[in-house]
Design goal:
Blueprint lengths: L1 E6 L17 E9 L5 E6 L3 E8 L1 E6 L2 E6 L2 E5 L4 E6 L6 E8 L3 H7 L7 E3 L4 H16 L4 H25 L9 H11 L6 H7 L4 H12 L3 H19 L4 H7 L5 H12 L3 H15 L1
Antiparallel strand pairs: 1-2, 2-9, 3-8, 4-7, 4-9, 5-6, 5-8, 7-10
Helix pairs in contact: 2-3, 5-6, 7-10
Length: 288
């Protein structure tokens, strides 16, 4: 067995540690690889326990039913929930685990829709493994504010898990830096330039037609409409936060003709840029 554990609080491993003074508190985190011996556990703890199977399998009794859980799955136990499971050495099972507690954990898990069952299949995700590794390393090294850093990684971990589950449930495609996500970042950085669709298609080696189809399948809007929305959002920011004239804002966001800019702005917001700025000014005045 290869075992790498990192503890913040020492406690009875069968009972755990309850910490209600903090919104979120990590008791311990680690990695295990089973190589020969079979291991079985039967206990109930006062904290949460989450396992991420990255190889092999685990055998869990959930609500009285024996379940075989394959790699790529997350198993989440609630406080005081019976934990009855075992691993077979011949499966060469590898897993990451984390024990956590806190007075706001319930709300966090509910907001991320992670309370309706014990087992979640997300596949083998490098991002999740890296976050577990970062938490383990931070606890081992214990640099200044290490627990705060760990909590950041922990919330990121749960959020990435929730995102992946949503993508699988809804058939959505998570954006990737090497694909459409890369183009979206480029659009955000270069929205003021009048790039044709072919410019973005070429950046990821796709034909224009295929790029448009793929982009729309991810964002639900065509590329040019997406860029237009970026320009409108930026225009609103400039109208609210600066004293730039309408002509100047039109130029900043990439429209050479301020009259056309006003037309596009009104089509998207229902107001001309001048009327929009006046409305915001009146609202701000009323607040004061």
């Amino acid at each position: 067995m290869i075992y790498n554990s990192a503890h913040i609080k020492e406690f009875d491993t069968d009972k755990g540690n309850l910490e209600n003074a903090y919104p979120y508190f990590i008791n311990s985190c680690g990695y295990i690889k089973f190589q020969s011996k079979n291991v079985s556990i039967h206990r109930s703890r006062v904290d949460y326990y989450m396992v991420y199977l990255v190889n092999g399998a685990g055998y869990y009794k959930i609500n009285g039913e024996q379940r075989t859980v394959e790699s790529g799955s997350i198993i989440l136990y609630q406080p005081h929930e019976e934990q009855d499971y075992y691993y077979l050495g011949e499966d060469n099972t590898e897993l990451y685990w984390i024990h956590f507690t806190g007075n706001s954990v319930v709300q966090l898990l509910e907001s991320l829709e992670l309370t309706n069952r014990n087992i979640f299949h997300v596949g083998i995700k490098t991002e999740l493994i890296q976050l577990f590794e970062k938490i383990i390393n931070e606890i081992h090294i214990k640099n200044f504010r290490y627990h705060s850093v760990c909590i950041g990684y922990f919330i990121n971990l749960l959020s990435m898990l929730s995102r992946e589950l949503y993508a699988r449930r809804e058939g959505a495609k998570p954006l990737k830096k090497s694909d459409i996500g890369q183009c979206i970042l480029k659009m955000q950085m270069e929205y003021q330039y009048d790039h044709p669709v072919s410019y973005y298609a070429k950046s990821i080696n796709l034909s224009v037609c295929r790029f448009i189809r793929k982009f729309k399948s991810v964002t639900n809007v065509p590329p040019l409409k997406y860029i237009e929305k970026i320009k409108m959002d930026k225009s609103k920011e400039l109208l609210i936060d600066t004293d730039l004239t309408i002509n100047e804002i039109s130029d900043v966001v990439g429209y050479n003709d301020p009259f056309y800019f006003s037309k596009v702005f009104k089509r998207n917001t229902g107001l001309t840029p001048t009327a929009f700025r006046k409305l915001i000014s009146i609202r701000n005045y009323k607040k004061t």
